[in-house]
Structures are given as C-alpha cells and as structure tokens.
Amino acid sequence: MQSSDNPMQSLMYITNRPDIVFTRGSGSWIFDSEGKRYLDFIQGWAVNSLGHCHPAMIEALEKQARALINPSPAFYNEPMANLATLLTGHSVFDKVFFANSGAEANEGAIKLARKWGKKFKNGAYEIITFDHSFHGRTIATMSASGKPGWDTLYAPQVPGFPKAELNDIASVEKLIGEKTVAVMLEPIQGEGGVIPATREFMRELRELTQRHGLLLIVDEVQSGCGRAGTLFAYELAGIEPDIMTLGKGIGGGVPLAALLSKAEVAVFEAGDQGGTYNGNPLMAAVGHAVIKTLVTPGFLESVRARGAYLREKLLELSAERGFEGERGEGLLRALLLGKDIGPQIVEKARELQPTGLLLNAARPNLLRFMPALNVTDDEIDQMMAMLRTVLDSL
Ligand SMILES: *Cc1c(COP(=O)(O)O)cnc(C)c1O
C-alpha cells in the first residue's frame, strides 16, 4: 500500500510523462487542470478522428448507454451489426470481427491467416512482415513488428515472422517458401516515421501474393478510417487486400478495433476466436457514429484538402529552415528535420505560454502530425506559427 501527495504515485511506471493532467477537450483543443489550453496535433495518437468530444460521439454514447451496455458476446446486438454493415458497404471486405485494440485485431489477423494456412496451404504459417513496422504490443504482434530491439526485449519471440524491407519487392520474394501463408504490412508505416509504401510496391505485393497463393494483410490501425484522405489507405493503390485490421480512428477515442476479411478467407470455426468485449454495443455505437461522419459526402474531400494545405505549409517551413522536406498521406504527415531535434521541439511546444502545442516526434529526426480529421486551415496556421516560435527559440 502506498500513500503520498502525488496522486499519480499508484500508477505503474511505463514511460516518462510530463507533469500535466488533462481534464477536458473540444475539437482540436485540450485543456489541463490549471486551465491552460493546448492545440492538439497528437489527438490521442491519431485516434480522435473527429477531435475531442465530438457531439455525434457523445450522442451515440449517451443513447446506447441508456439502452444497453453489455448483453454478452454470445449474443447479437444492433450496433455491432450496423457498424459491420457500414464497414463492409464501404470497403472490399465481407466479414468483420470486432476487438478492443489494434494489437488484438492484428492477433486476430495472424490467427485467421494461420487457420487459413492449415486449411488450404498444408499448414503454412509464416507471415512476412517488414523492418521498422509496428503491429502492437502483445507478444505475437511484437514478434511481427520490425521495431529495433523488440526481437530481444521479451525473448523468446513467437516464431514465424520473417522480415523484408518496405518498398523492396525482391526482399519479399526472397523470403517466400513452403511455410509462407501471408504478407502483412502497414500501407503507411506510422510509428516507423510515417513512411508510405509506394503505390507501385502495393501493386507488386498484390501481384506477388496472388501468384504464390498468399494472403495480403493490411494493418490499417493508423492509416485507416480517413487518416490517409481515403476511407482506407489500400484504396490509394487501387488494390484489394484479403484481410485488413482497424483500430485507433475507428472508435474516435473509445477502445474499438476490427478485423475484416474477404468471405472466402473468413474460415474461423466455432470457438476459434472470441473475446469478452467483442462487438460491445457501447463501443460499436460510437464507431458507427464516427464512420457515418467520415462517409458523409464531402468529408474525405475535406481531409484531402486539409492534408494538401498542411503539406504545403510544411514544405514552406522546410525550405525556410533548411529541413529535408515532408512525407505522408492525407492528415498523417511528417516533417523531416535532418537532425535529432524532434524531442526538444515537442517539449518546448508543449511548454509554450499561454497556449501550448501538442506534437509528436515518432523518431528524433522528424515530427509527426496527426490532427483531428476535421481540423481547420486556421488551426493549421496557428500550429505553424507556434512551431516557428519554438524553432526560433532553439
Ligand atoms: C497503434 C498501432 C497498433 C496497435 O494498436 P493498439 O490499439 O495500441 O493495440 C497496431 N498497428 C499499427 C499500425 C498502429 O499504429
């Protein structure tokens, strides 16, 4: 038992957090317990697609909370069906399984591919993944990830995830063998530093996997749900994957994730897959409100326009300060600093007075921007002005 003046003392240490407690948020703005406000270009880690506390989400939460919160995963409920239908209606997939986190959705994708391999490919189970990829923090998804150091952190790893190099089709082809069942990738590596797979590479991968009878799995936990300017990032390459996972933006801030597949790949049998909260109606109702908003005519066009605007502003700044340009899709972008000043910028931006700015440095030599998808040009201008103030002070 512990007692102390610090109310955070009882939390298990996992990472260094700034000495700030956030108490409320609205749109692109978040407020701490001292009343200081911050312009939020992190948005829960590319999670709050509609910004903080969007009315459509609050309404869905309230309505569903009064109706039914948890009937048990052994029964159908209406929100799970409504959201699944919305997702299949706006994607190339036919079947949906809901989960609570991106890692859990990816675990489901790995299991589904292994099951499919057992059934149709002589027990093949290897899934080719990529250097610098990020698929989650469970033991299997850490093993699938190509994050440096993770191969030994909680050794031994789960076997069966050989690593290829993004945008290098020969590196994938080289790894294909009798045991290979699938290739899994993020269409845009988010945690790796906002590195898009090229459209050409996505098409080559589709062709290669088809030729070898392998599944193509896209982890769209970060790139999906409007973030890339299209509802799903695979659309940018004009290809049809076999399996997709969603997380982060699908719930707009509540814990919700999904595993989607083509009908012929949905081979789970009774008891193969589950989870206490899968298809929980409270979360599904919120996810439905979020996706419904994203597919409103004009919404995704506006994400693309804001993304183009942010890109233009970042390129201007880059030219002005001698940085190395920018990259990304839609409203998932990175400014390439060319030196390891990212963490310093992040800290100084947060400490700006009277209004702070929340930014992320996915790697020390870049800044990652993941604002609300309904961010305004004016908020982008404010962010750029604050960023200039920080850069002037370095
Ligand atoms: C965040 C992320 C995950 C993990 O999601 P959690 O909800 O944290 O488990 C998996 N894949 C990608 C691409 C991500 O960005």
Automatic annotation (TrEMBL):
Keywords of this entry: Amino-acid biosynthesis, Aminotransferase, Arginine biosynthesis, Cytoplasm, Pyridoxal phosphate, Transferase
Gene Ontology molecular-function annotations: diaminobutyrate-2-oxoglutarate transaminase activity; identical protein binding; N2-acetyl-L-ornithine:2-oxoglutarate 5-aminotransferase activity; pyridoxal phosphate binding
Cofactor(s) required for function per UniProt: pyridoxal 5'-phosphate
Cofactor note: Binds 1 pyridoxal phosphate per subunit.
Family the entry assigns: Belongs to the class-III pyridoxal-phosphate-dependent aminotransferase family. ArgD subfamily.
Additional information: May also have succinyldiaminopimelate aminotransferase activity, thus carrying out the corresponding step in lysine biosynthesis.
Alphabetized PANTHER family for the sequence: ACETYLORNITHINE AMINOTRANSFERASE, MITOCHONDRIAL, AMINOTRANSFERASE CLASS III
Name this protein carries in UniProt: Acetylornithine aminotransferase
Organism: Trinickia soli
Species lineage: Bacteria, Pseudomonadati, Pseudomonadota, Betaproteobacteria, Burkholderiales
